[in-house]
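Thanks for the sequence, V.! I ran Mitochondrial ribonuclease P catalytic subunit right away. Repeating your input here for the record:
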Amino acid sequence: MTFCLFRIQSFPKLWKSNSYLPLGPRHSYLCLFMADSCGIRKQPRWFSLKTISSQNTKATNLVANSRYLRKYNGNDNQVPSDSLHFFSAGAAKKRSQMNSQSKDHDLPPVRNTIQLPTQPLNSEEWDKLKADFKGRSFESWIISQMAHDRSPVDVAKSLLAWVAAKNNGIVAYDLLVKYLHLCVIHKQTSEVIDVYEIMKARYKILDSGGYTLLIRGLIQSDRWKEAFLLLEDLKKVMTPSRKNYDDCIQGALLHQDVNTAWNLYQELLGHNIIPMLETLKAFFDFGKDIKDDNYSNKLLDILLYLRNNQLYPGESFAHSIKTWFESVPGKQWKGQFTTIQKSGQCSGCGKTIESIQLSPEDYEFLKGRIMRDVIDGGDQYRKTTPQELKRFENFVKSCPPFDIVIDGLNVAKMFPKARESKLLLNVVSQLAKQNLRLLVLGRKHMLRKSSQWRKDEMEEVQKQARCFFADNISKDDPFLLYATLHSGNHCKFITNDLMRDHKACLPDANTQRLFFKWQQGHQLAIINGFPGSKLTFQHILSYDTVVQTTGDSWHIPYDEDLVERYSYEVPTKWLCLHRKT
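Predicted structure:
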């Protein structure tokens, strides 16, 4: 899509300024003709553009007895002890940092050393700057850099005027969009409105990027209601993004249009779109000045939405929630930021947080779903045959329920400096001494003698635990899940695999949340199992990290600003809210 510029004198001004590049003896405007290359409309599209100015249980007891790491001298592979559990926010990053090995890093890309202008340039100056550029598209590159570095708007104006003069009046569409982006960044609403006027006059439909920029720019102006009209136009061709809704909702609240804000929020949820946390925070920030029970109930519904979707507010959002609760007249709410003890007791108010264990009904529901969607079919991540799976099912059914199921290959590779069969034997031996009924899952190649797999050590493993060795091409995880769930809610499993692929196979968000909850309460992660040292595990959470209430209290886990949390981790900091008595 390109813009062809022709000199005319009758179109309204898009950029109001004095002539900057001399296009002729008379004062003139530039009209942009956009050639339609996206197939939306057939007729020509016009803009006007003025030239620029020059200014600018057992298994449970096992975990309880193995919560703290005892140092093993000489082992540089072990993880230091702290209060983090396997799914704690920031734990994965710490593991990655400690396990990182020296790697050859790619050389950084060669960067252009051109310095961005800070003032508008004339034609000769732009020519010289382009001559110094080493790359394919100087114009696209430099306006992208301007947008990235938030360059002054008038510098970008001079660039587009130079491009038009040098290209027979043609300015590429992406240059104009990036200019509009720069205007939005600088909140130059008058510039945005001028662009909008021309677009409105000449276009029936815009691309999604144009709608997004115009909505964001207009919502801050005194013509903010027209952003809602653009949102309606966008709905005719696609479902608006959650950012589109966020801009409109925040704009409505900014201009005190509360009903429109709530209507847009309900519409957003109706599309099954997860709202931005900034959107939800805006409702709480606005609510500090609202003394209305209906509004308060809607905010409480937002907290329940966070719970049901296992969403966690950021630190700033948590402060907004605290401020709103404490501002509610007559309720005497008091908030504090705190942590939860390993016992599941709130360090702030002493209340006990909800258990991580599934109810019998939820457990049976999850078990059925995993059996059907992950193990029996639909799991594109497993590599096994129906015959082998049937052989394993018959094997498990012939055994008493297990206390712990071990991913043998995963455990054997946890400490690279140790021989794999020796490491596996060390883990199995220490667990067997506690009279735990064990199942070790492995591959058939583990039974073949090699430098990593000694036959006598594997024979000893088979004496102390029941073992099932699948074909070498098979995936262990479905077997592990089947055996653990079949053994009952008391059974734990040992692996460092996060099971994200199998979680993704589950059909809906609610089932995935139940799976993650079950996983947190049943997965044992070895901190230290190096041969010759005491086997220790990271502790398993006893409580569920989710927004929860008892009516006279709320407990809300939140993300700290400086802690990087991966999607399979949960926060460790909490907002505790309770009514003063």
